[in-house]
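Allow me, if you will, to draw on your knowledge of protein folds for a short while. I have a record of one protein: its chain in single-letter code and its fold written as discrete structure tokens. The full record is reproduced below for your convenience:
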Amino acid sequence: MPITLLRVDERLIHGQVVVGWGERYHVDRIVVVDDELRRSEWEQELYCLGVPPNVDAAFVDVEEARSLLPQWHSDPKHTFVLVRDVPTLARLAEAGLLDGLEVNLGGIHSAPGRHRVLPYLFLSDEEMLDLRRIADRGVAISARDVPASRAIPLAELPDHRH
């Protein structure tokens, strides 16, 4: 089973991912790709508090993820891959390992330099350029906060530079 969900969400593992997306897609494993979180066992334990007992959770850094992505594609487990931010997604995409996949933009909050794109999505100009570069490689990118909402393709997102 290929990766069921590849999502950019600052909150990483939380109720919307576990219940909203996880139950709909029968997730077996959640993999968080985050260099800092990979080094913090106590933070990993906190995130695991929200993971149901029948779901495996793993925390890897970008380099580990690059080597494991092909394995996750061929594994029969339904796998969610979560990243915290667009720069991490861009680093994963550098090796072409995301080509042909779909990326879901979930919650990315307001921060200095970011503009409101959707109520749950704020992006800086640099993040938007990174997303367009990734999409140009053949990665389908859309924004969607919950499974029941309509996926909004990257090309349809409001351009906040005007």
